[in-house]
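Async update (no meeting this week)

Hi team, since we skipped the sync, here's where things stand on the single-chain job. The sequence we agreed to prioritize is pasted below, unchanged from the tracker. I ran it this morning and attached the output directly underneath so nobody has to dig for it. Comments welcome in thread, and please keep replies under the output.
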Amino acid sequence: MSKIIITAAISGAEVTQEMNPAVPYTVDEFVREAKSAADAGAAIIHLHARHDDGTPTQDKERFRQLIDAIQEACPKVIIQPSTGGATGMTATERLQPTELNPEMASLDCGTMNFGGDEIFVNTENMIIEFAARMRERNIKPELECFDKSHIDMALRLVNQGHIDRPLHFNLVLGVNGGAAATPRDLLFMRHSLPPDASFTVTAMGRQQLPLNVMAMAMGGHPRTGFEDNLQYSRRVNATSNGELVARLVRIAKEMNLDIASPDEAREMLQLPAR
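Output:
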């Protein structure tokens, strides 16, 4: 079995320090959390940007500050900016991090009802636009799919020539409006992928750990971190992203699985040469 690539989503756009004081807002806090995750074994840092007051932003210069600071502290780690941003942001706003030419970036493959009046909009034309920007700038897209229909959309755009192989998916379960975080739904989504595609599994809250373990058992890769789950155990907050990563490393080793370094992850995902 291939090595396991651990992704740490260290901040997200929705969680706050009121929920867990360790959620990063400032540049120094982002560096602290990224380094804790990388030192524990994460090969990829999935990055949302925040202002110092915690407000989510897709501002290119804020991303530049964060990426430069994280790369100085963790020179080998793969930094994967989000192009999802937060609900209500325009496509132009959301695409700003791609101007920094990262190795990877997330590419959301469908529209979502996030709850109430919040709609996370990703029209077919937007997905094509985002894919074209990533191809133009030699950025590997992580195809973020919250539902089976998102996988179908991604594969249709692959067949139309908008998205290049080899494909890497992120199967996101347990988000309002998407597939439930259950073994049944994960199996359905995983078996909807092409056999030659690689995949990461993201699950929300208390389902994060069981579905991360299931992902590793199926030959996939896990994502952990504060964006998805703030707690280490029931009613006990995690003290850092690194604590969550370290738990996955321990479990993987008990399963006789090796952890991929950032350079090994680059090779496995066939990231574009820089």
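Quick observations from my side:
The chain has a mean pLDDT of 97.
The domain at 7-269 is CATH 3.20.20.70 (TIM Barrel).
Reply here if anything looks off.
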